[in-house]
Design a protein that fits this description.
- There is one protein chain.
- This protein is mainly alpha-helical and 81 residues long.
- It is built from 4 helices and 3 strands; from the N terminus they run βααββαα.
- The chain has a 3-stranded antiparallel sheet with strand order 1-3-2.
Length: 81
């Protein structure tokens, strides 16, 4: 049996706000909900778990060098690079 998560559960599981979730759905960056009724939607727990598993883990974002930061138009701040 599939477990269905409501919006408050998805917000708690992902740490994202409602508006961010809906924006990410619109840009195909987040799983689409399934319709539960006329005014109710939910997400399959397996879809949310899979999405979370595909996200980068904490600290795994690539570091940007000073030269790379300049190319990106970012301020070279030693504390942040």
């Amino acid at each position: 049996m599939s477990i269905i998560l409501r919006m408050r559960d998805v917000v708690n599981a992902t740490g994202l706000s409602r508006s961010t979730i809906y924006h990410m759905i619109k840009t195909n960056e987040f799983p689409r909900p399934i319709r539960l009724g006329q005014r109710a939607v939910g997400w399959l727990q397996s879809d949310i778990t899979s999405w979370l598993d595909q996200r980068p883990k904490g600290g795994s974002w690539p570091k940007v060098s000073k030269d790379g930061a300049k190319e990106l138009g970012l301020e070279a701040n030693n504390d942040r690079l």
